[in-house]
């Protein structure tokens, strides 16, 4: 019982910690930078303010409202999954990785649900401000996700003799993302790298628990 309690609280602390940092950074950027503005930190790291309607790294694969609802459902499933892991006394590292994925999902959900109704629109010439609830730039569930982390590590032009891409400019790494995206990516990467066997075992555990719930 003590182990279950401590691992459950570990997950909660990870999620709250990531969410706090994610939202503080997003609000600071949103209320202090105009859209498209870029601040150089180093040659390979910029704070570059953009927004997107999609999922991680700006991907858009379905209508915005459906995407937001599915994110909420996905987060609910992960919460249920973490509770099973805690009860089964799973490895702390594995629980932390899943908690990072959950934190990232919730972080972007917050933007989608609330930012459209509490902020004015960010433009190239105007900085967004807090507005009375419901007087923002979009309806509930239609808020845009704030991105700001840009790491243009290196860039070059492809040699002219290379077919199709010769002469084109190449930039690595071009996507602009946020801390929530980074949490999701780190959680998935570490799971695949170190916990693939644990993931397989936990799948069977969750499947058994789900069948048990259906029989109630």
From TrEMBL:
Q: Membrane spanning segments where?
A: 65-86, 93-118, 170-195
Quote the catalytic residue positions.
147, 181
Q: What keywords is this UniProt entry annotated with?
A: Aspartyl protease, Cell membrane, Hydrolase, Membrane, Protease, Transmembrane, Transmembrane helix
EC identifiers of the protein: 3.4.23.36
One biological process GO term for this chain? proteolysis
Q: State the top-level EC class.
A: hydrolase
Q: What does this protein do?
A: This protein specifically catalyzes the removal of signal peptides from prolipoproteins.
What is the name listed in the Swiss-Prot or TrEMBL entry for this protein?
Lipoprotein signal peptidase
